[in-house]
Amino acid sequence: MTEVLIIASTAPQFGVLAESVRKFNALGARVRLAGTFAMDAEGVPEQLAPIELAELHQLPRNLKHRSQALRRRATKSPAGARTWLQAQRDSWLRSHARKADVLVALDPRSVYTVWRLAEYNRTAAAQFGLAPALRAVKALQEQGGAGDARGSVLPPLSTVTREVKRSVDQLPGQLLRAATPRPVMYSGVGARLWRGAITAPGVPVKIRASTSRYVAEGMRWAGRTSGAALTLAEAAARIADPQLRSDLFDEAAMQEISKGISPRGIEKSVEARLALADREFAQGRTKQAAKALDRALHLGFHRVLHIDQLSSPLAKDAAGFVAPVYRSKAMQAASRPRGRKVPAAPAPTDRPLRLLITTSANDNFLPLIREQFGNHPGVELRFLDLSTSKHLKGISWAATRMLQDRLEDGESDYQEEVERLMRPHLDWADTVFLEWAAGPAGMLTTIDPGDTRIVMRLHSYEAFTRWPHMTDFSRVDDLMFIAPHVKDLTLSLVPMLRGEQAPRFHVIDNAMDLSGFNRPKPAEARFNLGLIGIGQVAKDPQWAVDVLERVRKHDERYRLLLVGGDMDPKTSQATREYLREFEKTLAPLEESGAVVRLGPTDDVPSKLVEIGTILSSSVREGCHVGLMEGAASGAVPVARDWPFYAGKPNSARTLYPEGWVVASPQEAAERILKATATEEAWRAEGALATEHALTVWDWPVVRKHFEELFLGKA
Questions:
Q1: 123, 100 contact by CB (below 8 A)
Q2: How confident is the prediction for the chain on average, in pLDDT?
């Protein structure tokens, strides 16, 4: 016979209990009820008498005969803990709990007690509510009454009975939080018990939401980050109201994002925000629609998903990942090309070209370009750093205002502000060269540029952000990429770039002065591997350490020199986690001298003198300037086949010469050992690398492409 033990801290709904007990009995179960509520109060025995219980047991109702220390402890404990403190020494309860096949918490305050009893009886199915308990009994019947009931019954917990729902309904938020101590969430049993409450049919929307947030809070406190996310997502899936549904899905995603985890259900979070944006847009509330749409894009292109990880959903199926975004009516309206009234005017022939180079703070790749055209007789140059002006910086990154302007499809306060601040620059310039296709790209394309030509450069980072999806490329004349694989990725993500009003595309290498890197290397540099740039997770320096350990098995003279600043742990939790593991790996290697950190430097050429093999260990890159500089210095290039792009039409294998790219750390080690087997072989391999770098990537070569782009001549 199946033994069922029900625990209650308050008097149950007797009609519901009676009906459930009859069902238990019909299944061949024997039901006992133990409670801390007053069973000798007026009217209660008569109500319980007709119920066909095998036994009814009064649990201690207070701590009157317990120690003063325990009573003080109880006054500071949550309600659920107090119920357990009252009942834990009851011999009847312990005896029948050990024999029970199903343990049932009838109300929130008894959940903790059931959880504690389940820790003693690990074969019992622990349930919150009578309906799940009935299903557990049925499952035992199907198993023939044998086996581990917990393993087969607990996972599908999904509902609680009406009286449990009512007890949850009646608890204000503070009392709900106090009903069961947080430690219950440490246990899978306790966590599943509480998750059952949020998925019950018929629970009022507000109660379902508040309960799910309480449970998620407890799970987060107990270190169950993914459990907290799942709890909120399960509640969200059962809520129809678009605002609350999207809020809960958002909170679910942020549970994991805040811990550096790429959320498994990010698509649902994004789709919920898009649905909200569509509803607001359909009802003419463009400001609210813009907020929801911006949040959807922010979640979908959060750096924890795409930048601070060793992989990204975009690596598997970029077009498929972004497709739901563009099914949104609001997104379709926001990304509709507005075009320009007149085409860009040709370059003047009777005066120098007026060229405005603009960026926001990051001008790392501009010095040679600014120097070249600042001294060019056919160019009058101006430079505008948007970050140096409070007002220009403010409009450059105003994502919600940009989207609201797109959704209103007419004049807006934002559009007027952009006109006022940017029109003087546009009126002066014949050509605007905007560095980075980020926030300023969305801002600049908010207004019609007139007959001013707009040239924009997209590096690599921007493709992993929401900004290209907020840029009106129909107002851009020329879009420059630094590598073919970056172009392929961006076009697969942004439908406007595949439309009739797309700009002209160009692939032009970064501006690099490589001639100064070709310096004589000492013989001992042959055994030094080098990695330039370790400040991002995507650089994956652990891969370089793996390569080092493999070559050191053959010769312990090999060392790894790390050039550049360390990762910033404040960037994200994902970065902190990677850095923590990387530091553990490095500690013994640094102590032995196998790894040497050279730190950040303004003089990379001098550091490369000591490096005999230059590595690219990244999971993704645009072009990896560090590897190109190392090749120019005469170091043997060894580039990982960047996993993000490996196997695609364009990748590291199409960017670099044959032989430079390797598929694994073992293949990298084999290339290094072969190329550095003798000093003569090493220097010959390095000379070939220098020749390629200087004839393909050096500034005198690349400069001609920029002059042709801006001036129409080389």
A1: no
A2: 89
Do 103 and 44 meet the contact criterion of CB atoms below 8 Å apart?
Answer: no
Q: Angle at Cα 31 formed by Cα 26 and Cα 37, nearest 5°?
A: 135
Q: What is the dihedral of CA 521, 527, 531, 534, to 10 degrees?
A: -130
CA 193 to chain centre: 29
* Token reading at 464: 């992993």
Within 10 Å of residue 570's Cβ, how many Cβ atoms? 7
Reported as type and span, the H/E element at residue 588 is helix 573-592
Indicate the SS3 state at residue 712.
coil
Residues in the chain: 714
Per the CB < 8 A criterion, the answer to whether 662 and 640 are in contact is yes
Categorize the per-residue pLDDT at 38 as very low, low, confident or very high, splitting at 50, 70 and 90: confident
- Return the structure tokens found at 135: 């299903």
Q: Report which of residues 124 and 337 the model is more confident about.
A: 337
Q: DSSP 3-state assignment of 3?
A: strand
Distance CA 530, CA 527 (A): 10
pLDDT at 15: 81
- More confident call, 163 vs 43: 43
Average pLDDT of the segment spanning 679-692: 97
Write out the DSSP string of 242-272. HHHHHHHHHHHHHHHHTTT---TTHHHHHHH
- What is the pTM for the complete model shown? 0.78
| 105 DSSP β-pair partners | 7, 128
pLDDT tens column, 110-135: 888 888 888 788 888 888 888 889 98
Q: Are the C-beta atoms of residues 259 and 219 closer than 8 Å to each other? A: no
From residue 491, give the alpha-carbon distance in Å to each of 327, 495, 498, 566: 17, 7, 7, 33
**pLDDT tens figures, 208-267:** 888 788 788 777 877 788 888 998 999 999 999 999 999 999 999 999 999 888 898 899
Q: What residues contact residue 40 under an 8 Å CB cut-off, 6+ apart?
A: 58
Rounded to whole angstroms, how far apart are CA atoms 184 and 175?
Answer: 16
Contact 525, 612 (CB under 8 A): yes
> What distance in Å separates the CA atoms of residue 568 and residue 147, rounded to the nearest whole number?
51
Characterise 28 by phi-psi region: left (phi > 0), alpha (psi -120 to 50), beta (else). left
**Which segments of 621-675 does DSSP mark as H helices, in order?**
625-632, 652-655, 665-675
Residue 489's CB is within 10 A of a number of other CB atoms, namely 24
pLDDT tens figures, 431-460: 999 999 999 999 999 999 999 999 999 999
515: buried, middle or exposed (CB in 10 Å: 19+, 13-18, 0-12)? Answer: middle
Query: What pLDDT score was predicted for residue 219?
Result: 79
Rounded CA separation 32/34 (Å): 7
